[in-house]
């Protein structure tokens, strides 16, 4: 395929900043999206097993509602964190993204409803389980399948977007234009590998959870040990599965001897050894986040090479540097995003670590962070609107 048409489809306004920065942000934010995708699917999946055990087993009766809660919050985070890579991929790979949104238009709409119904059913599952309804298992299972299917759709958009040589054939099979928007092509091994990371995520989460509740007197030591043990077994099993599926995927790609694939294989083996020996599970989770960053880089590496080989090089994208929007973005990201997330995480950590009632107003750090967020948000709103109106009037008057 010739990339002339793709180059013509690029945004004539050009990029507001250097493409490599968007590429880096894409890799970073997709890894974060993936972290919560895997945590939510892992937590929901394991909670379904928990619903079968919780009536007869004390440990599972405590763990299951906690897993449901973790998955529920993670879905909202995966959605929020999915928007960022979506924006970055649209900036540097806009011809790819919009072509797929046309070829698979109906599936894109179905994706929205699938997510909407799947997540709403998750809440239903949460309340049904709380009320000890026997229907909760079925509701949870349907929600799980819908969320997995949403992931499969996202996967199909991702893999179709890196097969430009097939777009014409999908658009007009045998010369007849197909406007159904029903193109749906998947790469089973790639999808299975990615989804298998949900098992690793939940295994590590269980270990973090056990380390976290250790200091909390509300939980028995036996419960804590049970969870730690379970988490460690699940993690070991999961990394072996990840390793096998990654080998299969890189073999299918013809990249088994590629340096990037070798790095991932070695990293997975070291990760397996370390998670078995490291006592502090938070370090293992940090290593998992690094693994996700590497995998995210690998996805981008595949895409960059495919596109570059046909003549579409993101580094050649026309530039039109806009310092104002870049400064606004960085300031928002660091001030509002950074302090806001630190505030929420600090408070959540302290609430969980507290044996009983936590009075945030008496905690100096939380109070300082809360006041800072309020001030930053207020200033941000003023700057945002003042700036917006200034530009609007400057351009239109
Ligand atoms: C339950 C819901 C979701 C699941 C399970 C899920 C899962 C996934 C998976 C497995 C991939 C990787 C596909 C691959 O590389 O083969 C992916 C990619 C992606 N997802 Fe999600 N996702 C979900 C929702 C969302 C939402 C709501 C957004 C945006 C708001 C989003 C944005 C993205 C983006 C931008 C990519 C990368 C696409 C590309 O590289 O071309 N996802 N998602």
From TrEMBL:
The chain crosses the membrane at residues 25-52, 73-93, 105-126, 138-158, 189-209, 230-250, 256-274, 281-298, 326-349, 369-393. It comes from the Bacteria. This is Membrane protein. Keywords: Membrane, Transmembrane, Transmembrane helix.
């Amino acid at each position: 395929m010739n990339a002339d048409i793709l180059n013509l489809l690029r945004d004539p306004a050009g990029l507001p900043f250097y493409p490599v920065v968007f590429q880096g942000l894409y890799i970073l934010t997709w890894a974060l999206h993936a972290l919560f995708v895997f945590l939510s699917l892992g937590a929901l999946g394991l909670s379904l097993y928990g619903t079968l055990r919780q009536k007869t087993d004390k440990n599972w009766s405590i763990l299951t509602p906690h897993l449901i809660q973790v998955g529920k919050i993670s879905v909202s985070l995966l959605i929020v964190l999915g928007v960022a890579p979506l924006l970055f991929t649209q900036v540097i790979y806009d011809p790819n993204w919009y072509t797929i949104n046309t070829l698979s238009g109906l599936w894109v709409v179905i994706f929205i409803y699938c997510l909407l119904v799947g997540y709403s059913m998750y809440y239903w599952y949460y309340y049904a389980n709380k009320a000890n309804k026997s229907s909760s298992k079925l509701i949870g299972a349907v929600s799980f399948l819908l969320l997995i299917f949403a992931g499969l759709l996202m996967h199909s958009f991702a893999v179709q977007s890196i097969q430009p040589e097939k777009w014409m054939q999908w658009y007009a099979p045998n010369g007849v234009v197909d406007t159904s928007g029903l193109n749906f092509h998947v790469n089973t091994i790639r999808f299975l590998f990615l989804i298998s990371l949900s098992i690793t995520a939940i295994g590590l989460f269980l270990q973090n959870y056990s380390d976290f509740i250790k200091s909390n007197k509300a939980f028995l030591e036996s419960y804590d040990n049970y969870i730690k043990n379970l988490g460690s077994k699940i993690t070991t099993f999961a990394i072996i599965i990840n390793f096998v599926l990654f080998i299969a995927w890189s073999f299918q790609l013809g990249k088994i001897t590629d340096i990037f694939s070798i790095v991932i294989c070695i990293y997975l083996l070291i990760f397996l050894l370390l998670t078995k020996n490291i006592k502090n599970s938070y370090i293992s989770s940090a290593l998992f986040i690094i693994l996700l960053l590497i995998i995210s880089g690998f996805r981008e590496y595949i895409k960059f090479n495919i596109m570059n080989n046909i003549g579409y090089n993101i580094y050649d994208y026309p530039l039109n540097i806009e310092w104002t929007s870049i400064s606004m973005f960085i300031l928002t990201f660091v001030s509002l995003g950074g302090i806001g997330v630190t505030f929420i995480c600090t408070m959540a950590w302290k609430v969980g670590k507290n044996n009983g009632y936590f009075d945030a107003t008496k905690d100096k750090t939380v109070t300082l962070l809360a006041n800072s967020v309020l001030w930053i948000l207020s200033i941000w709103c003023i700057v945002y609107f003042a700036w917006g109106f200034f530009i609007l009037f400057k351009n239109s008057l």
